[in-house]
Here is the input.
Amino acid sequence: MNLPGAEGTPRDANPSLRMLIFGKPCAGKGTLASKLTDKYDIYSVSTGDLLRKHILERTDIGKEAEEIVARGGLLPDELVLDLVAQELDTLRNKNWILDGFPRTQRQGRLLDNYLGKRNLPVSLVVNVDIRDDVILDWIADRWVHIPSGRVYSTSYKPPKVPGFDDVTGEPLTKRPDDTPEIFSRRLDHYYAQTSPLLYYYASRSPHATRLLNLDGDVNLLWPTLDSVVRESFLTVRERPPTRARLPGQMQVRSSL
Here is the structure.
């Protein structure tokens, strides 16, 4: 399904990858994004990582955000956009995936306005659409090495030694939020906020942005996404096998 860009923005014959990825909680969107940034020369921009960096470095945005968080408040959309915009301004001719923003229709419009003024519209919106019962099975099978964040599944990615991390040999644990009750609440939040945001992208007039809906056979999620990126975004290059991640390039943390 083709997804539109800003009105009057022509489709680029050889666009850069400027990608947003959405999906239900625990649907594997973080894992898919990590696979892309591991295989290709793509920058991962995580709003969570950026926020922690600004707070640690005591920047103006960081100090304002820290005060709001300390009061238990929610960060204003404009502040988060400023956070993201400062990073994207350094990546004007690069391929990137934005993780954690936007989350609402209003945030989507703010991001569109920012990118539209720079003639750099989002070029790919990915929706990881997995059935609820499949995700519940994944949650039941999931085990985590808390210190590193490494995730295992007894059904499709088991540890070499049952119950223990492959790298450190330390015990694996269940995440406290891996329960049907908590998943149900997170799913309600997703339908309330993210579903309207997807409708916003799908309802725009077709120009610069493509919508990729990943559903059906879970084994085809990565091959399908990999194929679309490889064939549709010719500016994306594979990383040499021994090449280290560039300074300042953030790794998307898996949410699976």
